[in-house]
Structures are given as C-alpha cells and as structure tokens.
Amino acid sequence: MNKRLFILAILFLSLKTYSQNLEQKISALPVFNELASTKTPFDWIITPEKSKAGGYASLDRKSIVIANAMVWRTLRVFPNLATTDYVNRMTGERMLRFVEGEGSICIDGKNYSIGGLQGQQERGYLLEDWIEGMTAKDSAFIVEDFEIRPIQEKFHWKRNRWALNTELPTGKDVVFTLRGKDEIKDVRVYLHLAIYDRLPVISKWFEIENNSDRTINIDSFILERLSMFEPESQSGSPKDGFMLPNIHVESDYHCGGSFTQRETNSTVRWVKDPEYTSQRNYSLNTPCILEVAPPISPNQRVAPDERLQSFCNFEMPFDSYDRERKGLFTRHFYSTIAPWTTQNPIFLHLTSTDPATVRQAVDQCAETGYEMIIISFGSGLNMEDISEENIARYKSLVDYAHSRGIEMGCYSLLASRRVSEDTDCINPKTGKTGGMTFGNSPCLCSEWGYDYFNKLETFLERTGMSCLEHDGSYPGDICASTAHAYHRGEKDSQWNQFYKIATFYNKLLANGVYMNVPDFYLLNGSTKTSIGYRETNWSLPRERQLIHARQLNYDCTWNQPPSSMWSFVPLVQYHGGGDAATLEPLNEHLYEYRTHMMQNYGAGVQACYRGPRLYDTEETKQVVKETISWYKKYRRILNSDIIHLRKPDARDWDGIMHVNPKEKERALAMIYNPLNEDITREITLPLYYTGLSKKAHIREQEGKARVYKLDGKQCVTLTVTIPARGYTWFVVE
Q1: What are the tens digits of pLDDT across the range 94-123?
Q2: Which candidate, 613, 682, 670, 617, places its Cα nearest to that of 640?
Q3: CB 428 within 8 A of CB 478
Q4: Are 281 and 551 a contacting pair, CB within 8 Å?
Q5: CA–CA separation, 331 vs 131, rounded Å?
Q6: Bridge partners, 191 (sequence order)
Q7: Is the CB of residue 100 less than 8 Å from the CB of residue 227?
Q8: Is 98 in contact with 126 (CB distance < 8 Å)?
Q9: How far are the Cα atoms of 12, 14, 246, 460, 513 from residue 385, in angstroms, in the given order?
Q10: For the residues of 78-113, what is the DSSP string, one character each?
Q11: Can you give the pLDDT at residue 261?
Q12: How many CB atoms sit inside 10 A of residue 645's CB?
C-alpha cells in the first residue's frame, strides 16, 4: 500500500470511529419529540421557574436539540455540524429558512467554515427532506465529539452587598469538538452553545486550540451566521429601513463609548442575501442574514498548546412587538445573565477629600441609612498616586468609614485625556495622536496603560476601597502604533485593548468592587452605567429639573433594570446655573430635595447626590432619614420591573408601577402631580405581571388596604387624589 492510500485508510477509520462515537452518545440522550406549533403554555415572565434547559436527540438521532420551554435549536451532526432548525416556542414560529454553518474562522489568510452543510437549492424556506441530501462544506472543521454539561461561571462575582438577584444563570452548555483538516489538522475548535433555565436565550462562543508545533494567526472570524425569515415583504427600499426579525441579539463585546446597548452594539449586523433570488425585494436588498463578528479583525497569534476564546453572543426571540413586553424580556435578560447589575447601593457623591468633611459625610451616611460614599471628580483624589503617604491618607478614611458600616470608593478618568505622544492612540488615518472617540486617548496596551491598571488595583486593594467610578472607559479606539508593548499594530489594537479593560472589570467584580462605568460594560462585570442624561440639564432651575428627572426615569427604564443605571442630583453647582439650579442650602429647598429623592428611589434609580453633605439641619436630616427608611422598607419591590403608566409631560399626572409576582408586595405604584392644584383622576393599574388574577389588596401609602376585584384584563381602576406639586403611592398585595 502506498503512502497516500495508507493516509486515506487511516482517515477513513478515524472518520468511522468518530461517527460511531457520535452515534452512541446521541443515542444515549432523551429524544426530543415536540411540534413547533405547540406554544409555550405559560408566561415565563411570571413563572420563569417552569422552564428548564436540556439537551436532547432528534427523532432520527442525527441531530442534537438544545431546548427549554420557550426556544429550541436543532444542530445536525451528520455529515457535519449545522443549525437546521430554530424555533420560537412562544409563538410557534420557525425562524430559520436556510442552512449554512456555525460561523467561520480565517487562519493564516485562509477561511474555514465551522462545520456547515451545503446543497440546499431554495433559500426562501427549508424542507426536512432536503436536509438528508446535504453534504459537508469543503475546507470545514469537522465535528468529532460533544459534551453536555451545566453552564459554568464565566468569571467570579463576590456577593458582598444587597442585590435583588444573587443567583448566577443556570442551564446546559453543549460543547462540540471540531477538528481541522490538512494544514490545520492539529487545530481544534470547541464550540459552545448554551441554553438557559428561566430565560428564552441561547448563547454561543468558541475556543480555538492550537495543538500544532507552529504559531497560527487568527485573522478574523464570524461567530454566527443565520439565514432567517424576513418579517415583511418590501419590493423597494423603504425610507425608514427594513423591519428586522423580532429577536434581540447582543454580545459581551461592547465598546462604543456610550451608555446603551443599542449605541455600543458593535458586533451584530443584519446583511443582505443576494443569493436569495426568490425574495420579494426586487433589488435583493432585504437584510435577512444575521452575522455576528468583531467590527475589526482580532489578528491574534495562538502559540502551540495555547487557546484563544471568542466573545460570547446572546440571542433572545420575542413573543410580541409590544414595547413594554419586549422591555421586560431584555430587563430579565440583564438581571439573569448579569445579576450583579441588580446590586443598588445607596451612595453619596462626595465633592471633598478634606478629612473632616469626609468623616462628617461618613457620620451622616451612617445616621441616615446611606451605604456608600464615592469620592467624586474634582475632589482632588488621585488613584494613580500609590505613594505610601497617599495610600495611608485614604486608608485611614476608609477604615473610619468601615467602622461606621459605610463602604467607600472613588473616581478615575481613563479616556478623553492626553498622556503623551508615545502613549496615546495613533490615528490610523493621520499617523498622529488625536481624532479618537473623545479626542485624545491613551492606548490601554501601551506600557502606560498596563501601569495605569496596576496602580488602580493597588490603590483599591491597599486602601480598602470597594467602589470604582471609572469615567471615559475604553470606547473602542483603534491604535495604529507599532511601538506599544502589548499590541502589534492597528489590526489587533481594539481586541487587545477591549480585553485588557474587560479583564480588569472581571477581576474587580471577583474582588467585590462595585463599578459605576458610564459605558456599556454590564456583561463584563460593571454594575451600573449612566441613565443617559444631558449634563447641562442639571444647570436648569430646580423646578424644571424635577420634570426632566422623572422623564429620564420613565424613558430610560424600558430596556434595562433601574438598578443598572444612575441619575444625578446637584446638591452643589455642577456645570452652571448658580443658586437657582442647586439644592444647597438644603434646608431652604426641602421640597425639591425630598421630591428628587422620592422620584428616584421610587423608580429604583440611584442618583449621584453630589455635594459635601447629606443634611445641614435636623429637619433636613429627618427628611433624608425618613426617605431612606421608606426606600429600604420597600427595597425589593422598588428594584423590581417597571410598568410604565403615563409619561411625565407636566400637563397632567404621570406615574410608573413596579411589579414582582414573587414578592409580598406584588406592586407599588408611584403617582405624581406636576400641577399647582390638587387633582383627582381615575387611574388604571394593569396588574397582569403581578401574577394576581381575581382580587388584590391595595392601600394608599401606609393606610388601610381595600380589596379590589380585577377586571377581565387583570386591571384595577382607582380614584386617586394627588396633592398639588406632590405625589402619592399605592401598595398592591
């Protein structure tokens, strides 16, 4: 037998062995025998515990099905790995119209499909019979094994303060092992597809392992490519854009220099399918392929016996187009996948580092029920000064705060500043510094960048501070320098910088550090981002700030839990506005001070109360103390889901309502009157999401509860009198 035939024989035996192994393992799985048309028989928002994730065999035992009660995904294994079905069980809809592969990886200039099947002639729909005739894609990684295991913790969260949810997500992680061929025969891809308990979410990521004796380069990759059914038929190009499939997709690779997921969503794109010639759009412009990939190539070297891990992508189909319901989906997504965002400590933004002022602030926090002090920007604190003298100065203040049961943290600015020509990001277009997202910005993968993070870690550890407000976090700037120590050039600069800061946040979370970061790093360990205010609005007159703040609380809580955002209250002047804009002296502006606190705490939104103190008189102290005591009494329901009742327009009442079917207080409604006279209104409370169906015990404030019968839509209508420029609240049990 010649050498070529011998190699082919060995390859054939290997394929047979792998195939037999896969057949045996799939046969050992329970069989999935469900119809796509059978809809989820419960509302997971109200009873998520009814949904458990699992891994199953298809009826013909040629596929693996990952499923919970709300979604399933079928992954064909023979002749190679590919998604052949994706079902929204809540609506009974199949979402996939065409079979491809599980993404692709470009290694040393050549593209390789991660699994993949070919041979489907029609791209507008898929018949089961067609799958049997499909063949494996050329130049593809071939599946040889799989393992089903519990979802593992991606990075540790030290639970050391109050949180509405203290549980990490659970579910099943199916890990497929795929091997390369020919020149990449010693390269393995471990493809993870995880499905969660209690949540209609499937996540996906991979690890690539180099078992060869040479270094390989990962030029680029596509993590996900799904050809989905288009939700509408457009023959032309609509001016307002095409309607996209009704599914939420985001990754944990966010770096856009802004507050929200939509603004920083850099990896998800919907692209055209020009080969889909039977689509109804004459120009073949329908964006009906979901692609998930880094915005620029990672350009990462993988040495022998090393691994590279991709970012993680999350997919969550919706069951309606209702804004509130879709918002509840995404809010539950964050509070489940990133439960650290449900922490919500009560903090003061302290504007001074004077020891006497700091100690006074600590005492006031302890006496009123506050839990944390963040020494703010402009205070004079410098975290990058890790001299013995500076460490000792702040450690003594932290020790005093701890003696009174108060946590302490501080502020550091990263981006939007100039360090030096040798350190700052080099603009690829000009070859010079400047032109970044915030103007000049230091490169995180320079020597200075690594030194900066080491200094912050040292400062936090040695002073005992347990909160970091990290301003101007990494916004995704590309650096074309070839002289920086920890990246090679333009192509790998974003990837390296992103993972430098993400790893930093992971580590702080594991050490119990709370993080205010005005950029969207919630899936990487940060705990709160800005609610999205315009800073100069806090220079408006006090009375106008109240309406603007309520509008913020209403408009910005559709898609994120209130605990994951902070707002602002200028106890002292912020950007301007003088005496008319600020609350100091506090005792002279108790109406505005109390109203700010009630509408923020009443929304479950912490604000940066920025100033040197919490109170200036005994009367002011009592106002703060009573408000915090009220908030803590209802803390769990006030941090629960918000149902939006009526937007603040300053023309009539406005309000929100918190709901939680698992709590004693099923709902708490906050109702406001911006007018100068008392008003009486008929206000309907939609109680569906409380889990109540027949009757509810409702009381106004701390009054006596009355029993109300719910109508056919599970609503109750109350006659409410609201005082002029005032508020009231109702508790539902």
Answers
A1: 999 999 999 999 999 999 999 999 999 999
A2: 670
A3: yes
A4: no
A5: 37
A6: 176, 206
A7: yes
A8: yes
A9: 64, 60, 50, 11, 19
A10: SSS-EEEEEEETTTTEE-EEE---S-EEEETTEEEE
A11: 81
A12: 18
d(CA 115, CA 128): 19
> What are 299's two structure tokens?
């350009």
- Look at residue 445 and tell me whether its pLDDT is greater than 90: yes
Structure-derived torsion over alpha carbons of residues 361, 363, 367, 370, reported in degrees to the nearest 10: 50
**What is the spatial distance between Cα 196 and Cα 173, in angstroms, rounded to a whole number?**
9
Handedness of CA 415, 417, 419, 420 (dihedral sign): positive
Statement: residue 178 has pLDDT above 50:
yes
- pTM given for the model: 0.95
Q: What local confidence, expressed as pLDDT, does residue 15 receive?
A: 57
**C-alpha distance across the termini of the chain, in Å:** 82
d(CA 664, CA 692) in angstroms, rounded, equals 12
- Going by C-alpha positions, the residue among 621, 614, 663 that lies closest to residue 638 is 663
Is 44:198 a contact under the CB 8 Å cutoff? Answer: yes
Distance CA 582, CA 576 (A): 9
Mean pLDDT over 359-387 rounds to 97
| Rounded Cα–Cα distance for residues 714 and 694 (Å) | 7
> For strand 82-88 and strand 679-686, is the pairing parallel, antiparallel, or unpaired?
unpaired
Phi and psi at 657, nearest 5°, equal -140, 130
Is residue 9 pLDDT above 80, yes or no? no
Angle in degrees, CA 435, 438, 441, rounded to 5: 75
Structure tokens at 467: 């909160």
DSSP annotation of 678: -
**What average pLDDT score do residues 692-717 get?**
97
d(CA 166, CA 344): 12
Q: What is the DSSP letter of 123?
A: S
Q: Does residue 281 sit in helix, strand or coil? A: coil
Q: Three-class SS of residue 241?
A: coil
Confidence category of residue 2, pLDDT binned at 50, 70, 90: low
- At 52-98, the pLDDT tens digits run 999 999 999 999 999 999 999 999 999 999 999 999 999 999 999 99
Other Cβ atoms less than 10 A from the Cβ of 165: the count is 19
Question: 270: exposed, middle or buried (C-beta count within 10 Å: 0-12, 13-18, 19+)?
Answer: middle
- pLDDT tens for 277-318 read 999 999 999 999 999 999 999 999 999 999 999 999 999 999
The mean per-residue pLDDT over the stretch 251-280 comes to 90
Handedness of CA 497, 156, 103, 256 (dihedral sign): negative
Bridge partners (DSSP) listed for residue 669: 657, 730
Cα 587 to chain centroid, rounded: 39
Cα–Cα distance between 216 and 212 in angstroms, integer? 9
* CA Rg value for the chain: 28
Distance CA 548, CA 565 (A): 16
Helix (H) or strand (E) holding 592: helix 590-601
For residue 307, give the 3-state DSSP assignment: strand
Q: Which residue's entry shows tokens 């979802």? A: 151
